[in-house]
Amino acid sequence: MRKLLLQLDSSRLPSVFDQVVAYDAGADAIMSYGGVTEGDVRDLIHGCIFTRGPRDLHNTAVWIGGSNMSIGEQLLALAQDAMFDPLRVSIMLDSNGSNTTAVAAVVKIEETVGDLQGKQVLVLAGTGPVGQRAAGLLARDGARVTITSRKPEQGDKARQFISARFDVQVDAVTFNDPVQLPEICQGVQILLNSGPAGVQMVPRSAWTALKSLEVAVDLNAVPPLGIEGVEVSDAGKQRDGVAVFGAFGIGNFKTKLHKACVARLFTRNDLVLDAEAIADVAREMVPQKR
Ligand SMILES: NC(=O)c1ccc[n+]([C@@H]2O[C@H](COP(=O)([O-])OP(=O)(O)OC[C@H]3O[C@@H](n4cnc5c(N)ncnc54)[C@H](OP(=O)(O)O)[C@@H]3O)[C@@H](O)[C@H]2O)c1
Q1: Does residue 36 share a domain with residue 13?
Q2: Model confidence over 209-231: pLDDT tens digits?
Q3: Is the same domain home to 111 and 233?
Q4: How many angstroms separate the CA atoms of 102 and 108, rounded?
Q5: What is the pLDDT, as a whole number, of residue 289?
Q6: How far is CA 281 from CA 217, 251, 253, in A?
Q7: Ligand 1 pocket: which residues have CB below 6 Å?
Q8: How confident is the model over 261-287, as pLDDT tens digits?
Q9: Residue 290 domain-assigned (yes or no)
Q10: Which terminus of the chain has a smaller tally of CB atoms within 10 A, N or C?
């Protein structure tokens, strides 16, 4: 029986990147819908669950993507609401790659550091979809996480959202000038830059001066890179006594994880792969110190 993936994308044009990865992960055909809104979800999901019998439903799965994570979360909730036992298909949420990217970064940090309990983490520009997911997962690991934002209200809003979504406590600080770095980085052991493409957030002198720093991760692949002195292909390389990861160093694992998750969707009909479940898949793929 052919493996069919229903792609529900909130953006006008369904992501080609997501389609290519899904084919590479073993999907035989992808039914792509763009510009999907809340009112569309129920009937599209019913098209999946009423067509094949319960024993064959693991051959159909749903992918939720698009550029907006909060819309993606709403689509996921509605898709789950539209299903009932025994008529279910597995679903994955990865709006803009935010879940798989955040998870790849977090699991590489776990692999490097081991136990994150009590570790002090700073997530730069942690208000975006990737930073919020990463902050929540790191806090769930027991780390003391602070996110930064250029605007106090935005930082506080993201802090509240992360705390509610992941049932954790995170802090937020306002950061809009590198001169603040010595103060906001005091005692930081793990530095994760989730700022936008092409923006340098940390000059080299700021992180190399940090005696407490163990790991630095930069997710920005577009020059100028986010953490000066961390190269895009670094994957755990020691630089100035710090294990550093660049965007490709994380991105290579992210792509493997993305494929593994899509393949997993077709193994049963009741998986819901959001951040935490995707992290479980990732942890199976790497040796853990913890
Ligand atoms: N390696 C991979 O596989 C991979 C995959 C996906 C994404 N990424 C990368 O991961 C990073 C995070 O992605 P995202 O989608 O979460 O990011 P994003 O939403 O584009 O940006 C994150 C935050 O950056 C802040 N920001 C925006 N413009 C800024 C500027 N000029 N200077 C300083 N801060 C600014 C904003 O926070 P405030 O307004 O609150 O300050 C924003 O919420 C990006 O660099 C992206 O390219 C990597």
Answers
A1: yes
A2: 999 999 999 999 999 999 999 99
A3: yes
A4: 10
A5: 58
A6: 21, 16, 12
A7: 96-97, 101, 125, 127-131, 149-151, 154, 194-197, 199, 219-221, 247, 250-251, 254
A8: 999 999 999 999 999 999 999 999 997
A9: no
A10: N
